[in-house]
Every structure is written in C-alpha cells, then in structure tokens.
Design goal:
The protein has about 280 residues and is an alpha/beta fold. It is built from ten helices and eight strands.
Length: about 280
C-alpha cells in the first residue's frame, strides 16, 4: 500500500506519513516484494539494524497461507518459518489466513477442524517462541461467525487469536449493527488489526446483503465509511488491546492517483484522533 501511494521505498514512506510501524507481507521464502527480505539470519540482522536506525518497527508479519491446499505441510511450514523470523525480528504476531475457497462436499465445520489442527501444529512446533497467530476474518469462509468460533474453541492456546479486520464482516454482508456485535464478541481475541471502512446506501446498511455486494465501489476512506471506528477502538480499549491499528484503505482504487496520498494522510489523522 505504501508503494501504491507513489513512494519509492517503504520505510521512507512510513516515516513521511508520520507513522512508526507497518505490517510486512512475506512469501514462502520469507521475501517481501518491497526490498525487506528476512529469509536468513544475516538479512534479519540487517533489517533489524536498519529499522532501529530509522526509528520504525514491524508490527506484524503477514502470510497468505491456505490450509486447504493439497500440500498442507508446505502451508504449515510457511507459518512456522514466519513465526521464527518474527521472533528474531522482535515482532510478536503473524497474521495468518484461512482456507480460500469452499470445495464441493466440504462444510464450514470441516474447514474449522482443519484450520484448528494446522494452527495447533504450528503452535506445537513454535512452543519456544513468544509469537502469537492472528487469524484474519477474511474472505467467504473466514468471516463466518461459526467458523471463527469453531477454530478458537478448538485451539487451546493464549497464542491463538485474531487479526480483526474492521471492514470485512460488513463486506461479508452482515448488517451494520451485527458487525458491532461481532467485533464486541471477538475483541478479547484480537492480536492485530486491519482497519478499513465501507459505505452502503441507507437502505442497505441494516439488512443482510450478499457477500461482496457492489465491492469495490463500496470501499470507503476510513473517515467516511459507515462503520463508527471510534466505537471499534473503544471496544478494543475495553478489552485491554494496546497494539496496532493498521490502515488498510481499499478505497484508493476508486480515486485518481493524485488524490490517494491525501486520503491516506486523512486516514492517519482520523485514527490518531480516535486514539
């Protein structure tokens, strides 16, 4: 997202925006697409040195694993490797993903059991690390309340929690009031966040909608969408959450390139005002 705004380099962009941290996405080889690779001890030391010298830090690593893939061992290894890299970097959470697509004959309960088994294996293989897993409410499976509850109830570890995406429940089609109920319900499990917003017509806000209805046109800047982010922040505060609020403004594609940086700057100031 930082590069999408026109910056040539992530750390410089983060600092110019007046921020102190960012989420770093890494692939299977623990290499990012933004010049910050953490695949070896030497590279991790260099990244750590640079971050300290620049006065910024990584709030979370992001992996796009899919435990429903045929080679599930590779997916588990990806997450385990990311946890070990996170620990070396002093990062205390790894955002993990959920199965991406429903296969014929497979139920949400099946996916919840599969995800829980894989997560438990990751936790067992990294029991020496103080790194949490933040499963995002994401996509057609991961935003379902019963799926999330099934995984959380099956994994017995304080290291298992959520990357709460403030906009994805709304994208999934839950009415606005129910979005707040879900956030309040899952707030005690939050380890990390993606903060986004959406905007629907007044008639569509409080009804159950189809998944992804009118997206991406419904994506909105954080300060303009329907979701009361002040309410979300206060819910998190009440549970003792004191970590990141990571901006994920998916509305940028709805605006000309020359306006996007100004929108993000307003997003930053809006979140700072809520804190």
């Amino acid at each position: 997202m930082v590069l999408h705004l026109g910056y040539d380099e992530v750390i410089a962009g983060v600092k110019d925006l007046g921020l102190e941290s960012f989420e770093l996405g890494v692939g299977r080889e623990l290499k990012s697409g933004v010049g910050l690779n953490i695949s070896t001890k030497e590279e991790r030391k260099e990244v750590t040195r640079r971050l300290r010298s620049e006065g910024v830090h990584i709030c979370a690593l992001l992996v796009a694993n899919d435990f429903a893939k045929e080679d599930v061992k590779a997916e588990i290894k990806w997450v385990v490797d990311a946890c070990r890299a996170a620990s070396a970097l002093g990062v205390d959470v790894v955002r993990i993903d959920v199965p991406h697509q429903m296969k014929t004959g497979t139920t949400l309960e099946d996916y919840a059991r599969l995800t829980a088994r894989c997560v438990q294996q990751v936790i067992d293989e990294t029991k020496d690390l103080d790194v949490s897993l933040g499963m995002e409410n994401h996509g057609r499976i991961g935003n379902n309340r019963e799926f999330i509850e099934g995984v959380l109830n099956a994994v017995k570890s304080e290291r298992m929690g959520l990357t709460l995406d403030s906009g994805n429940f709304y994208w999934y089609g839950y009415p606005l009031d129910e979005v707040y109920t879900l956030i309040e319900s899952f707030a005690p499990y939050v380890k990390h966040t993606h903060i986004k917003n959406l905007s629907f017509s007044r008639e569509r806000r409080q009804v159950r909608r189809t998944i992804g209805e009118d997206y991406p046109k419904t994506a909105a800047p954080l300060y303009q969408g329907d979701i009361d982010l002040k309410r979300v922040v206060n819910v998190l505060k009440k549970t003792g959450y004191d970590k990141d609020l990571t901006i994920e403004d998916e509305s940028l594609g709805n605006f000309p390139p020359e306006q996007r940086l100004g929108i993000i700057r307003k997003d930053v100031e809006h979140l700072k005002s809520l804190i």
